[in-house]
Design goal:
By secondary structure, the chain is an alpha/beta fold. It has ten helices and eight strands. It is globular, with a radius of gyration of 19 Å.
């Protein structure tokens, strides 16, 4: 009797999903065109594939350019680092090693989709530190996990840059001005992870200073009862919990074969897949569709004011 109750709880916690007919509430999202430049903002390494690997793959097949900017390198996950190093006595160097591994895995994952290494920007700011850095942008932040106070990775966009909100803002602005994306894919501000929330706030703030206006697509990764089932369920729809259904979401169906390519790309995140929770999270986004929220910047750029890019042309 006890085991039956346990199995029932597991069923509802892992495999419950909203009714499939709720897909009909949302319009389809058209794929990018050959002239488009797509930039996805990933607070952590793997967010870009979880949210939009299928959209990227189809865009590349149509001749578009795809870029990814990673705000952190995932060097704050003690559980994954402990599994990698087979120890509970973690040192800062162990977490930095995990960050370096995850950057290499990102290059491999994006190669599956056809995105070259030169289209990936690793900013290297501290995992878990984005919100406090933006709350106090002038203060020097010290990572409680790695003990670092500056970007520690040689392959980063600006190695050695101090951990401040102002520097994060400057580096992300440089990437935006370089790429000048026509599509900008960003975390939704109501994602429950603080790094995702901070990334969404920062992007909206930066957009108010730019002289160009990309199409904004928001993505959700972390939320209560999302996704369901919280496990590998290929050829099943990715659906939303009821509290988000009133928003203007768009469905992007994955063509035949693209869902499998997304699964192969996510499979390159070997270090992540050693954690049972992260393994389930990665697999649960392998579905027959992706979901994007059509968004607008929270502020409009004032007419007659020079943009933050200074009129410089990008050279992606």
């Amino acid at each position: 009797m006890v085991w039956a109750a346990v199995l029932l709880v597991l069923y509802f916690s892992l495999w419950y999903a909203p009714p499939a007919e709720k897909r009909a509430r949302f319009a389809l999202l058209a794929p990018a065109a050959s002239k488009d430049r797509i930039l996805v903002v990933a607070p952590h390494i793997d967010d870009e594939a979880l949210a939009a690997a299928g959209f990227h793959r189809v865009a590349l097949e149509r001749g578009a350019q795809v870029y990814v900017v990673y705000l952190t390198s995932g060097d704050g996950n003690r559980f994954s680092a402990a599994i990698l190093d087979r120890t509970i006595h973690l040192r800062p160097a162990d977490l930095l090693r995990e960050g370096a591994i995850r950057m290499r895995e990102a290059v491999q994952a994006m190669a599956v989709l056809g995105i070259p290494p030169g289209h990936l920007f690793f900013l290297g700011y501290p995992d878990g530190g984005l919100r406090p850095m933006l709350t106090h942008p002038e203060a020097l932040y010290t990572s409680p996990r790695t003990r670092e106070r500056a970007v520690p990775y040689r392959s980063a966009f600006s190695p050695g840059t101090l951990y401040t909100g102002e520097n994060l803002r400057r580096d992300l602005l440089r990437v935006l001005c370089l790429i000048r994306p026509t599509f900008l894919i960003i975390p939704v501000p109501f994602d429950t992870h603080p790094d995702h929330q901070a990334a969404g706030i920062l992007i909206n703030d930066l957009l108010s200073t730019l002289e160009f206006r990309p199409n904004l697509l928001g993505y959700l990764v972390h939320a209560h009862l999302f996704p369901r089932p919280f496990a590998l369920a290929p050829h099943h729809p990715l659906l939303l919990p009821p509290q988000f259904l009133s928003r203007p979401w768009r469905i992007f169906p994955l063509p035949p074969g693209v869902e499998e390519e997304k699964h192969r790309a996510l499979g390159k995140y070997v270090s992540q897949r050693k954690s049972p929770f992260l393994l389930a999270l990665l697999d649960s986004f392998v579905r027959e569709n992706e979901l994007f929220l059509e968004e607008r910047a929270t502020q409009d750029h004032e007419e007659g004011v020079a943009g933050a890019c200074g009129g410089a042309k990008g050279n992606p």
